[in-house]
From TrEMBL:
It comes from Epidermidibacterium keratini. The keyword NAD applies. Its EC number is 1.1.1.22. This is UDP-glucose 6-dehydrogenase. Substrate binds at F149, L150, R151, E152, K204, Y249, L250, T251, P252, G253, G257, K323. InterPro entries: 6-PGluconate_DH-like_C_sf (IPR008927), NAD(P)-bd_dom_sf (IPR036291), UDP-Glc/GDP-Man (IPR017476), UDP-Glc/GDP-Man_DH_C (IPR014027), UDP-Glc/GDP-Man_DH_C_sf (IPR036220), UDP-Glc/GDP-Man_DH_dimer (IPR014026), UDP-Glc/GDP-Man_DH_N (IPR001732), UDPglc_DH_bac (IPR028357). SUPFAM superfamilies: 6-phosphogluconate dehydrogenase C-terminal domain-like, NAD(P)-binding Rossmann-fold domains, UDP-glucose/GDP-mannose dehydrogenase C-terminal domain. NAD(+) binds at D30, R35, T85, T121, E152, K263, R330. The keyword NAD applies. SMART domains: UDPG_MGDP_dh_C. The lineage of its organism: Bacteria, Bacillati, Actinomycetota, Actinomycetes, Sporichthyales. Pathway: Nucleotide-sugar biosynthesis; UDP-alpha-D-glucuronate biosynthesis; UDP-alpha-D-glucuronate from UDP-alpha-D-glucose: step 1/1. Keywords: NAD, Oxidoreductase.
Amino acid sequence: MDVSVIGTGYLGATHAACLAHLGHTVVGFDVDRDRVRQLANGESPFSEPDLDELLRDGVSSGRLRFTDSPELLAGASVHFLCVGTPQRADSAGADLSAVWSAVDLLAEAHAGPALLVGKSTVPVGTAAAIAKRFASQVGAWEVAWNPEFLREGHAVEDSLHPSRIVVGTDSESAWQRICELYQPILDDGARIIRTDFASAELAKVASNVVLAARLSVVNSLAEVCEAAAGNVRDLLEVLGSDDRIGSVYLTPGIGFGGSCLPKDVRAFAERARELGVGESMGLFDEVDRVNLRQRSRTVERAFALAGSPDRAPRIAVLGAAFKAGSDDVRDSPALAIAGSLHDRGARVRIYDPKAVPAARRLRPDLSYTEDAADACEDADLVLVLTEWPEVASLDPRVLANRVARPVVLDARLVLDADRWRDAGWEFHSVGAAHAH
Ligand code: NAD
């Protein structure tokens, strides 16, 4: 099928490359010229396993093109909307300006008949508003909402082997065409669920608010463990053994971040208020508040452990990405904590195996290194902020020779405590008493 993908960020670039991999002819459109140029050369603008290879294959096969010329959209009969929907500057709600400018651009570039498939995460009601906008358009436009559940760091794998595909549409022909597009994935056993527009839009934010709430619960439990001389690792083993709870997505840390969860929780509560059902939304305001508190809590604990009240402590920060496997630093708690430590006078050196270039662009005032041992040179405290395997596998005996004081705070529960203690470290971790 001839398809277009509008917006080629993390979601759109991955989606375009995967559709080409499935055999479709794809044109990726973006307003960002530099991004288009890079993608057209078959290079990924961000670090995602297997994405470079899929882009290269797609571009060299001729099935995958990238452009900033809207006229090229007219050649496609299915258009995937993948533009960003960040938080608005003036409220907790979602900024839909990119969605509406893409819809307007598409309506001008293409007279229909065509199918618009929304993949961006949007407030409930957006798909119906877009369908209404197209109802006044010449030519027969159909609309469907097909929210994306991919996880950064697993974007290609999740796109080609999704846990579920959700399609919200009231049109039988739209449903048929989308099934046809995803046929190879469906043949592989993927589950597909058909809903109305509203349920499809809500399905995505519902997943994110449930995950966010779970993390704020577990972070609160970790805080109590610290105060009560308990150990959250033991608690997690007990909780995770209960089939009703399960052990996945149950690790405390420095709070969730990235470009999706925080803004999706806020936008969900904001939209519920607009719909007149704001009374129960205090729960989600609290999820957000508890989440942000993990950042300030980690900063306080780091200063308390770094000692030397009479001079600025040196702190080695291991991790800047918002999660392992990704170079994304958008709303990264790790980078925010490193920034706060620096702003409050600590001498911070940040190591990250992938995210240093992106972090440097966002916080050029901080000091970075691509070597963990260099970050630890003369440090009063080593602070683990991203759960990278590269960090988990560091040799504590080697690092002990580089630091000023062998004190570590594992804020992501990735280090082997016994191994570090045996190498002479004073070991602290999230969810364990200060003296543990
Ligand atoms: P992104 O910021 O990486 O990419 C958005 C892209 O859209 C940018 O390249 C931007 O230049 C482009 N754009 C903006 N306005 C445009 C226009 N009018 N026409 C064409 N292109 C335009 O964002 P992302 O992380 O890819 O997220 C996109 C959407 O997908 C969001 O709604 C997000 O919530 C959702 N989502 C993201 C992920 C993820 O892991 N990143 C996962 C699931 C869903």
